[in-house]
Fold this protein.
Amino acid sequence: QVQLVESGGGLVQAGGSLRLSCAASGSIFRINDMAWYRQAPGKQRELVAAVTSGGRINYADSVKGRFTISRDNAKNTLYLQMSNLKPEDTAVYYCNSEILVTLINRRVYWGQGTQVTVSS
């Protein structure tokens, strides 16, 4: 059983910073791509940032220059450092990853989400 568990959300004032973490646990053979998504009330879930197993990174235009995604493969953990936060960053943030439990058995997993609220 594989789980993704996010932490680090909270309430912060505009201009502040937060660091999200996502720890993968369970019977893991290998972790491929990892990503952060977010969903604001009444809106569709959107990609925030992603990092491949090889370290290639991409960001949504709305967070470029403010957010930094990273991963620690030894700890099976994904991070999102968020700086200069804006009220429009308020959302539930979800961790997403393609994980192989065996060499040929892969699927996409989602975390339960962590709330980020930015006050103006």
Q: What stands out?
A: The chain has a mean pLDDT of 97. DSSP finds no helices and eleven strands in the chain. The first strand starts at residue 3 and ends at 7. The two ends are 40 Å apart (CA to CA).
